[in-house]
Amino acid sequence: GVGEEGWTPPRVPRCARDYNSNNDVEKFWYSRPFRNRADGEKSANEFLDLWIEKRVLTTREKLPGTQRRSKVENVEVVVVNPLENAVTEISKKNAELKEKFAAMESIADGEADNSYTMALNGVVDAAVNGGIGNYATFINGQYKVDNPEIWDDVNSSDAKRSYPSKLLDVLGEQIEILEMGVRLHETKCSPSLLPLHQHIESMFNGEGGMKEKTTRMIEEGKAKAKL
């Protein structure tokens, strides 16, 4: 990875964001996944074994520059637990969806190609078919018992302790983004894609659908947080 994450305002055009993140850069990073179970066993939910070790390298000079290389002045190792990783990935997906739906707004009614449909369907379908369940353990607190190594890491700093509430926030944001996307898609998608749109709308808004499941989980999480 190149540059510092998340510092460029989201309303800046992608070309400008790409330029900013790839010029005058002095921080670079790479990451690797690893397992952190004390007992060496796999979790019932493999999602809970997804730990990331991220190494952030700081160079002496900002790049690109007149020299082909620069000395690494500092190396920082950051451990990202599965809860943090979940929040990061959902935030990234939210940003992608916002950008996709913003682009769809400028398209004439009935003219959006199937890339917009696939972007919407991919998130809703995955959530309805079990994806949203990956986060339930963080919301109901079961991970504290089943994966105490995650709970220990969450309690290791004030910043990490904020992630259970951050998870509720990004899930709530995703529902709001998808609500707007589903409404917009109905008018923008081509007539041939309307049957698929109706299926997506049913999975999102229908009984037992993504919106209902996620909203219930968020409400349960907020209620537990008050105890």
Report what the structure shows:
By secondary structure, this protein is of the alpha+beta class. Helices cover about 55% and strands about 15% of the residues. Strand 2 (about 50-65) and strand 3 form a beta hairpin. The longest helix is centred in the last third of the chain and has 26 residues, at about 165-190.
Report the sheet-strand fraction.
Answer: 5-15%
Mean pLDDT across all residues, rounded? 88
Strand order of the largest sheet: 1-2-3
End-to-end separation in angstroms reads 40 Å
- Cα shape: flat
Structural Rg: 20 Å
In quaternary terms, these chains amount to single chain
Order of helices and strands: HEEEHHHHHHHHH
Helix % is: 40-55%
* Strands, total number: 3
Low-confidence parts, pLDDT < 50 over ≥5 residues? Answer: none
Number of alpha- plus pi-helical segments? 10
Structural class: alpha+beta
Largest sheet: 3 strands, antiparallel
Please outline the helices and strands:
Elements: H1 14-21, E1 25-34, E2 51-63, E3 72-80, H2 82-105, H3 114-128, H4 136-140, H5 143-146, H6 148-154, H7 158-161, H8 163-188, H9 194-205, H10 210-226
Antiparallel strand pairs: 1-2, 2-3
What's the gist of this structure?
This protein has 227 residues and is of the alpha+beta class. The chain has 10 helices and 3 strands; from the N terminus they run αβββααααααααα.
Key terms:
227 residues, alpha+beta, 3-stranded antiparallel beta sheet, 10 helices, 3 strands, 54% helix, flat
